[in-house]
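Bit of a strange request maybe. I'm writing a small parser for structure token strings and I need a real example to test against, not something I typed by hand. Could someone generate the tokens for this chain?
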Amino acid sequence: QRVRSDRRRAAADPQEKHVLVIGEPGTPKLDVAKMVCLESPRRKGDVRIVRCGKMKSRRRDAATQLADALDVICPGGIALLSDVHELPDSALHVLRDRLDDSPPRHPPGEGVRLVLTTSRAMDTNLNLSSLSTAVTTIKVPPLRVRAKDLAAETRFFLRQAAVASDVSNAQTLKGVTPAALRLLEAYTWPGNDAELQNVLQRALVHEIGIAERDGVSLPTMLSEDVLWPGSEGPQSRDKRLRTDLLRLWPLLRQAMRSELWMDGFMQYVVRPAFAVVVIGLFVAPQARADNAFLNVFWAWWWPGILLLYPFVGRLWCSFCPFMAYGELAQRFRLKMLPQVPLMNWPRDALDKGGGWFLFALFAVILEWEELWALEDHAALSSWLLLLITAGAVIGSLLYKKRVWCRYLCPIGGMNGLYAKLALTELRAEQGVCSAECSTYGCYKGGPAVEPEGMESEGCPLGVHPAQLQDNRNCVLCAECVKACPHKSVKVNFRFTADDILQPMHNATAYEVSLLFLLFGAVFCHHIPEASTLLQMPEAITTAVTKSAQSVGNIFTSRPFAWHTGLATASLAYPGVLALAAHRAAGSRGNFVREAYSYLPLCWLASIAHYLDLGMGEAGSILPAAARMVGLVDLAPRLPVLVASPEVIDFSQGLCVVVGCLSSLVLLRVLARRPWLEIGWQCGGMIVLSAQLWWLLLVA
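Reply from user aminoacidic:
Good idea to test on real output. This should exercise your parser:
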């Protein structure tokens, strides 16, 4: 709006001062200059464009070329000189003389008015401040500070590209989806409007190619999956700090392209094993000491999956038993009702509410786990597994691909959050994808493509690997590795927590809420110890213990009410303390972005909590299995491998200390402020760590 006002003021200037339009490369400087000419009273006169950049390649002297170009313009006309910063130094004196001469030294309407465009300030070279009359300057701001203009410019450039494509139904394209617009707004656009135009033109060309290949109509809105901002976008990372493991270890590439990864593994291992576990949790003895399946679930799976995150991110989700049955149900549904297609994802609604749904569901599960002591009751643990599986199956029966896994699964949300700490990432080269790919088989699916692209169903989470900004939406299923015919996909080794450190990191309130919920779960599971720390009345401590020991609690009973209130307060406690510390510091900085610094402490605190089970009970699985099948006399003679209490305490303490120090360093990096200015936040972290130390090691 300011540019429009300056442009109109310059065009209607009664003194007809010369105009200098300044803007970064790629900004619409020339368009603004043309509008000045079109809105000027001289628009019916002799208006000519002189491209200064071309004068450098001519044999004739640049000063002579410029003088000749200006001399042929009739008095009362306008000379539009584009990119005057590219003029050779030998021609600058000609330009300065003309600026100092006309038209202000002539009556209005006479002489030649100059309208110049440049990508940098010219006062040093032309000494504009010493001219006899001032030059009107119009500054065109870069696109990165005009995020509000992106929607309008996107529609404009798409209309231009649709007309230029000469495809009859291309003009049905109305714009981009809200998710795509958010992606464009998050990008810095170093190439400004010209880069945006190129990105949209390439996306339209690809969509037209896919529509012609598949015999379908063009979409009315472009999705974020076909919009790839350039090399300084989400992929702007120092490649020197990454090592492609697929090139380093060719056997890994072969394994990821094999049938066993991951469909074969789910078919032959995961589905049968999960069925056995669920049934065993129902029919076998209910105590953990007598049920090997319950031992595996709480003493092996939980510590194991937490330890996997820093190495392989969300790999567990690729062969998740919940989605193993969800995909099986989806294939059965398509086979039985082929005439009824699966629905597309309501992306806008899921982007807004999906994260809060999984947060709420996880909160309910944690309350259920604490109030009914699920780790000590096999049947209830089985019901928990079936509940999550039911969500995966229902989502797969209604919608395409893995909508439950991407948006709604509480375990998937936790996995995606912790995966940001991983030392590995799967990404694709945007340059290769944009220049050579025309099939999008890696995320849409399709037949085999030469030279080595395999038939694929596409990304189960509906994300193009070139669009991945972090590890949250990648499960390492390797569908893109199989489908890509150009070897664009890489599995990189990198620094830990690299996703969080990126300027383009998408920090969300629901994910931060989930982080503090998981952190609060550690406090929630130590309510009896916390009641001692807080010196609560003995009646409350007894009520909590009594509530946790029974599965048949009456909801209106006093012990249950006390326990529910304390569990809710414990889950909320870390987040409330962190927010209070941020507010105490004067609310400087972005709380949502800086709150990710608690992630290492949250992760290691969770590991410390489960070390009691992992190091203290996981090694007793053989005696538990013997007692489960009735071999009670054999159980004492079977080997047991457990750590001593001292070793467990040392490991838990080490986790708390390392987690606290890591989070403090990460906070300093994310806040980008001196230690004194983040003192309150650091104090909050230290207080939480000290309380964890007391709960885990002292109480």
